[in-house]
Design goal:
Layout: H1 2-12, H2 31-44, E1 48-52, E2 58-62, E3 73-78, E4 93-95, E5 103-106, E6 111-113, E7 129-131, H3 140-158, E8 167-172, H4 186-189, E9 193-199, E10 204-206, E11 211-220, H5 236-246, E12 262-270, E13 274-283, H6 286-306, E14 312-320, H7 324-327, H8 332-343, E15 349-350, H9 358-364, E16 371-373, E17 385-387, H10 388-408
Parallel strand pairs: 3-8, 3-9, 9-16, 10-15
Antiparallel strand pairs: 1-2, 2-8, 4-7, 5-6, 7-17, 10-16, 11-13, 11-14, 12-13
Helix pairs in contact: 1-3, 3-10, 8-10
Bound molecules: zinc ion.
Zinc ion (ZN) binds at residues 78, 141-142, 175, 198.
Length: 410
Amino acid sequence: MQHIIDRFISYISIDTESDPNSNTTPSTKKQWNLANKLVDELKTIGMSDVSIDENAYIMATLPSNVDYDVPTIGFISHFDTSPDFTGANVKPQIIENYDGKDIVLNKKQDIVLSPSYFEDLLLYKGKTLITTDGTTLLGADDKAGITEIVTAMEYLINNPHIKHGKIRVGFTPDEEIGRGAHKFDVDKFGADWAYTMDGSQIGELEYENFNAAGAVIKAKGKIVHPGYAKGKMINSMYYATEFINSLPRLETPEHTEGYQGFFHLTKIEGKVEETSLQYIIRDHDKEKFEARKSLMEKIVNDLNTKFESDIFSIELKDQYFNMKEKVEPVMHIVDIAEEAMKSLGIKPLIKPIRGGTDGSQLSYMGLPCPNIFAGGHNFHGRYEYVPVESMQKAVEVICKVAELTATKYS
Ligand SMILES: [Zn+2]
């Protein structure tokens, strides 16, 4: 277990925060610091075809050790951390044999990680937790995933009696700013399918995510001196509220869960002359997703008819789609992961993601790619933590998926 702790800490000690306002890839230069280290490490443990391209996408191969054809499978993680919270100077704390009580992250600043607020902690009584010192995020998202993949490859190399086909490994920058898959060369990767090791709690296995679109609704007004405005002024802000109130009030993020979709008003910018409303639209179901977009268009048309003027306009833009459509035709790739977990005594938690993943983009780029737990909790903030035993289990899941795939095709 010390080996996995040391490896994980060596990764989180390197700041790799990504930056949504940058146009380069990787979005921040410092991501190269970890990328270059990972390339060296993959070579050191004995991986083949280790490569890094001009955008810092890393790929490597573990060759097959069987003499029959097995599909090539891949494991993918991202090495950037979220710009939501600083990842510089991470000072990890290791809590052995966790007693189920409050963990003081920072005495001076009175920052406490408490199971009375974060109930998931109680799942890990007796385990070894790695936490922050309360002043940074931890970076388990997704350096836990990278730790697990590297450790699993090292284990397979050192234990050649475990039979497996060809395995590809891929590490990407900039996932946290939604660009991890953008410059991923799916052809070069050359896998039949892959898994992102980027989920949270032990057991998580995900192959459904939202369909996602963005909408901008504009209401146009007319500015006139308020003293002489009678019958002339059109105040776009009042009209904009008509639109807001025409949408189903309870179909919003704060009123929905599970498979329920929503409209989410993210921003209003208004003055008399023009008001713009920014929405995101989310639904797992493709038909309901399309119906949501149509409803917005219909409301715009209806309101323009009602006010006998083209006050409203709408622009809709699809963002990403539910990977379920691409994964269901090859459902055995989920089944293998589920079987691997069960054989290791892990209860699979299969649930829809209320968001997107790099895997959903990759699935639409031709690489079906469910998501497996990496073990961490409370991502993107000071309360982030990871149980070492969960990372260890993720290593075992990777090895078992490789082994089961080889067995099924023998
Ligand atoms: Zn992540």
